[in-house]
Model the fold of this input.
Amino acid sequence: MLETGDSARDLASFMLPESGGLVETDDPARPYVLLDRDGAVVEPVNAFFAELQACGRPPSTVRSYGMDLLRWWRFMAGWGLAWDRVTRRDARDFARWMQVAPKPVRVHWRRRAQGDSLPMLAGRLAGLPNPVTGKAAPGPMYSARTRVHAEAVLRAFYAFHLEEGTGPIINPFPTGRERRRPASAGGPPRATGGGRYRPKVPSTLPRRIPDGLFNELFAALRYHRDRALLAFWVSNGARAEELLTSRQRDQLPGDQLLGVIRKGTRAYQQLPSSPDAFVWLRLYQEAAWRAGVPRDPAASLWWTLRRPFRPLTYHAARAMLNRANALLGANWTLHDLRHTAAYRMARDPQLALTDVQWILGHAHLTTTQIYVPAGRDEIVEAVRAHHVRQERLARLPAVPAAGYRAQALDDLFGGSW
Done:
C-alpha cells in the first residue's frame, strides 16, 4: 500500500555502506553476479541478468545495470529494507538521496594499503571547467544522466519481477503520471514519457576536439599503437570498445576497411578508415611482432605493450588517453573522438547524412542529426569573427549625410536663396 507523508529519513547525511559487490565471472552464461552484504549471490538480480542476456544484451550492459542495482542494494542495506517489501516511499527517498547526497568517494587502493582513510585530493577540482577543453570534470554529486539511468534500470527490474509474480505487488518505481489534455483537444489523458522519478536531463551539444587541439593530443602520444588507435577512432567513428574487438584478419589496408563488432547488435561491420591510420597500424604491428605479440589472423589486433602480452581492454585504452591528457592538462575522453569523427562527416556537404548514420551505427537518423548544427567551437569562432567585424566598422570614418547643410547654403548664397 502506498505510504503518504514526508519521510523522516536524514537523506543528506546518509552514507552508502560499501557492502556487497558486482563480480565478473568466467561463466559466459552468467558474466556478472551481484553479491549481498554476506557474500551470497542475489538471486532476484541473477534472474534479471538472465532476462537481459536472453534479450540479447551484451555483458557490458549487464555490468552497467548491475552497478545501478548494487547502489540500490546498498541503499536498502543501509536502511534495513527488503527488496520485495519496498514501497514507493522508499523509491522516492532513493531518488531524493541521489539528488542531495554527494557521491561516495572510495580511497585509492594505494592509499588504503598505507592505512590512509582520506579520499584522494584529486576531487577538489571536480565540477570545474577544464581550461583546455572547457569540459567540466565529474562533480561531487550524481549527475542527471546517472539518476536517469538508475531510475530506468530499477523500474525495469521491478517490472520484470512484477510480471514474474516474485516482487512487490506494485512497482515502487512507477511510470509518469497521466497529464490531462486541454478541453479543446479532447481525447483520453496521455501518460508522460519515462518514470515518475526520472529527472530532466539538460540538452547539450556533443563535444568534439578541434583540429588544433587534436594535433596536440596526437603529438603527446608516445607509441605507434596509441597513434593508430586515435587515427582509427577519429576517422571511422567507431565506439571505443568496438574498435578493440577487431582481429588481425579484420584489417584490409588495400580497401581502407577495418572490421569491428557493433556494440548493440553485435553485428560485424567493415568501416572505411583514413590511410594514415593504416600506416600507424603497420608501424605498431611490426614493432609488436618483433617484441613477441602473437601473429595470428584470429588473434586480437590490439595488445598491451609489455609482457605478459594481453589483448587491450577498454580501461587500458582509457588510461592511455588519460596519460596524454595529463601532459596537456586536458580531460578529453575516448567518446570525444567518436564525436569528432561524427562532426567531420556530418558537416561535409558531399557526404549524405544517411551514409554517416550507417558509419556511426545509429538506429535512427534523428540521432545522427545532432551533429549537423554547428558545435560549440564553431559558434564561438563565428561570434568572435562578428566582434572583429564590429570593431573594424567602428574604426571607419563616418559617411557624410546626403545633401548640403543649411548653414553651408546660407554662407554660399547669402541667405537669399
Remarks:
- Confidence is low (pLDDT under 50) at residues 1-6, 117-124.
- The radius of gyration is 29 Å.
